[in-house]
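User: quick one, fold this
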Amino acid sequence: MSIRRTAKPVEKGLAGIALMGVLVGASATPAGSLERETLQVTAVSSRPGTVSGDDALIRVEVPASIAADTVRVAVDGRDVTSGFRPSGDGLMGMVSELSKGDNRLTASAQGAITGQLTLKNHPITGPVFAGPQEQPFICDTADFKTVTGGTLGQPIDKDCSVKTRVDYMYRTTAGTFVPLPDENVRPADLATATTSLGKKVPYIVRVETGTINRGIYETAVLHDPESGTPDPLQRGPGWNGRLVYGFGGGCNGGWYVQGRNTVGIMNDTYLSKGYGVASSTLNVFGNNCNDLLAAETMSMVKERFVETYGDPAFTIGNGCSGGSYQTHQIADNYPGLLDGILSGCSFPDVGFGTIQTLSDAQLLNHYFKNVAPDVFTKEQQRAVSGFGKWESIGSLARASGRVDPTVYCPAQLPEGQRYDPATNPDGARCDVYSHTVNVYGEVPETGKVRRPLDNTGIQYGLEALNNGTIDMDQFIDLNRRIGGLDDDAKPAAERTVADLKAVRLAYRTGRMLNGGGGLADVPIIDYRDYTDDAAAGDMHMRFHSFSTRARLDKANGTHANQVMLTRSSGHGFTLAGMLSDMDQWLTGIKGDSAADAPIEKIVRHQPQGLADACWTRGIGAKKITEPQVEGINNTECNTLYPVWTSPRMVAGADVANDIVKCRKRPVSRSDYQGPVTDAQFNELTAIFRYGVCDWSQPGAGQQGLVGTWLSFDPQVTGSRRVSPN
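Assistant:
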């Protein structure tokens, strides 16, 4: 198989941003000491620059010529050697009581060059790299239900913290999880688990619940309390050495709250095979619709997991809908946190893959209902939208409230703290853009967040016109009166004009999924229950999977790391099957010591039988293995599950859906396959006085990632914003 990879963007420093490199190294080699070997010091629990909670798991690689018991480890001169034990070719240990900010770690021994590492320690309450924390922020600990059925009680500080608690649950032979009554007594109905490594252990689960980064986290691992406290240097028999991190969906109302739920960690599919499981309330988009804060939270929770249980061989991310945003963008923008992803009912990202389609649906719905209620039939309206069902226009229009600062405020946020343009203009704005202020910045004149949203030049309904579904007069009226959204996302007569600084920042920082960062080197199983034909309409449309695929192709010249699976009503692929395939895939990659590029290893170790496929509908579904492509009725799978489009695709955009603001060209008669009178052409040139979208050109401000592991911490960068140039 021929695979082409284009070069990744060169990482370079910018005003207002920091690229957090791996700070592993040694002191300069003194003259005449070239014969001495170096002690290598690395951070295991996190990157050196993103340590949190005052501790870190550290590895010291010791050369064979040096006796490990002669090595001394210190933090800013404080001896911490007693915390280290032999591990492989060196030492491993927890370093505690770190100071906030920089901590200089050294490993020294007679006859060796001293190894050095600078750890930057952050508060366990955050932030680390996502920038200043949002206010107001409502604590939810008193409403969070623990696995035992109680709550966490009232928070102990302004950051919504609670004391960490440990509960033990067990799986009964009847197939339910219940609290373990006595850690010293084995219940008669205790089940046995057989891990993926073939070890049989009591099916007892250690559940840890606490607060990190102002969110509530949960972790779960098979662990027998009789064996004592977990040891990160000695893996217990119940844990198979793999971690599954769960990401939850939603978006509407996902701001200003701690959240009352994680995605759930008591999952028999994972736990019965020995997988560790972790999640946080801030990794549920219904609580936090911000991929940057989600990445920061996942980084900190994973760090806690590693410090408790040890370093996983690999971490698999799994999430549907809003969970899929997180799997894609965390893997791309913060590589190393996720090694493989299961991305369900997927979108490439929330800010563009989803919102551009939702906002177009809102404008069409407003036009069809309020501006020209009798001009288009339902079928004509559907054709203009590109959706498979007419009902999806209204359904998606309602979901577009996530860009309106007044529609989807969380119930926990008091009315008096909410934004109202007339009575409380300085209140909390409940929308996606305000929740991403650390990236986009504010417009000085208004104090509102810069917005990368635009529909200038879009010829709505162009394909429907050219295939004869609507006529030229309808096309003209639609584009003359569809309008745009004002600063508060209310329908307005003029088209929406994006802030170009925000547009450039969206591309440079990865808010618009690029696909050429870490995602290029991560195996992806994109799985979908088909809902394009849902009776009430549904936003989880199949073309979004192809948007991600197209972006991978644009960034890397290949999508060989993505497998696409489609079924209906739960008949076909299974979570257990996908987990097993991903485990096999990652195990093969990890064990491959060849010097080949990651994509070559991904292709080489893709499990036999795991390939693009769909399943026939209904009970007894049959698997159809064939390349998944765009289209309607052009393949077996597309006959079963047509790939419908979107308003912008009907207007001429491609499926990548990666142009925020299109470049313009003059209106041309060649755009229209039917006759155009002089009067009609004059109307079109007046409507599009600044030109129509030239979809063959990159969008205005469109560019590659500036780098990965970006920090928006003003204390690091000297500014809270990345340069928009």
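User: anything notable?
Assistant: The longest strand covers residues 204-212.
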